[in-house]
């Protein structure tokens, strides 16, 4: 019993010391704040007031819309042409178009095809057309990157589009089945799975 009462007395003494120390710290920190003079304990006022003005979020859009059409059927090793239609939001201002192939093992531009061309829209709505030729080097879906770029007083503005070209038949979706379908004693179809070996 004496041991327990001593133990309790020690804990009470520790609690009193901790409480006294925290009171001293609170007092000194408040004195420090008063010494600094201009320090405000009030949070800053909120300057945005709901309902004050209408705010609209606008999705950034490139200056040129690019649409395309593949002419004929793309075949590995054979040149294929694409008709490109451009619609510029900057009217008749000329712009530069660049063609790029990211994967040279999938497709290449023929020697006669310019990598960069200057385009001048033919009407006030900024419409113009170009034709580009590529040579597919493998089957599957391959991409030609087309970039339309304007030089303005504020810098350059551009639109980049990846044009997909399907070479050969599109790969059909294959459903992989697990196990084997069999008929049980009652004529019901069931699927059996092989046991896993540990």
Beta-strand content estimate: 35-45%
What is the makeup of the main sheet?
4 strands, antiparallel
Average pLDDT value?
A: 75
Radius of gyration: 37 Å
**SSE string:** HEEEEEEEEEE
Tell me the CATH architecture of one domain.
Answer: Sandwich
What is the CATH superfamily label of one domain?
Immunoglobulins
Low-pLDDT residue intervals, each spanning 5 or more residues: 26-37, 44-59
Write out the strand line-up for the largest beta sheet, numbering strands in chain order: 1-2-6-4
Q: What oligomeric arrangement do these chains adopt? A: single chain
Number of strands: 10
What distance separates the N and C termini?
61 Å
How much helicity do the residues have?
A: 10-25%
Q: What is the overall number of helices?
A: 1
- Described by the principal axes of the CA atoms, the overall outline is flat
Fill in the CATH topology of one domain. Immunoglobulin-like
Highest-level CATH class of one domain: Mainly Beta
Give the structural class.
alpha+beta
Description:
The chain has 198 residues and is of the alpha+beta class. It has a domain at 64-167: Immunoglobulin-like, CATH 2.60.40. It has one helix at residues 2-36; strands at residues 64-71, 80-88, 95-100, 107-108, 116-119, 127-136, 140-152, 155-167, 180-183, 189-192. The strands form 3 sheets. It has a 4-stranded antiparallel beta sheet with strand order 1-2-6-4, with no helix packed on it. A 4-stranded antiparallel beta sheet has the order 5-3-7-8, with no helix packed on it. A two-stranded antiparallel ribbon has the order 9-10. Strand 9 (180-183) and strand 10 (189-192) form a beta hairpin. The two termini are 61 Å apart. The model is unreliable at 26-37 and 44-59 (pLDDT under 50).
């Amino acid at each position: 019993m004496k041991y327990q009462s001593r133990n309790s007395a020690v804990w009470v003494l520790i609690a009193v010391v901790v409480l006294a120390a925290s009171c001293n710290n609170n007092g000194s920190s408040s004195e420090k704040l008063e010494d600094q003079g201009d320090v405000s304990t009030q949070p800053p006022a909120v300057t945005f007031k709901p309902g004050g003005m209408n705010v609209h979020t606008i999705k950034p859009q490139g200056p040129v819309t690019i649409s395309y059409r593949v002419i004929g059927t793309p075949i590995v090793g054979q040149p294929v042409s694409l008709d490109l239609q451009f619609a510029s939001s900057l009217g008749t201002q000329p712009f530069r178009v660049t063609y790029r192939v990211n994967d040279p093992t999938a497709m290449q531009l023929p020697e006669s095809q310019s990598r960069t061309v200057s385009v001048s829209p033919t009407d006030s709505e900024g419409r113009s057309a170009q034709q580009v030729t590529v040579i597919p080097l493998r089957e599957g879906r391959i991409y030609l990157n087309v970039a339309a770029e304007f030089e303005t007083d504020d810098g350059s503005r551009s639109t980049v589009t990846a044009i997909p070209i399907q070479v050969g038949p599109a790969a059909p979706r294959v459903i992989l089945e697990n196990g084997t379908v069999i008929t049980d004693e009652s004529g019901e179809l069931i699927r059996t799975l092989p046991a896993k070996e540990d």
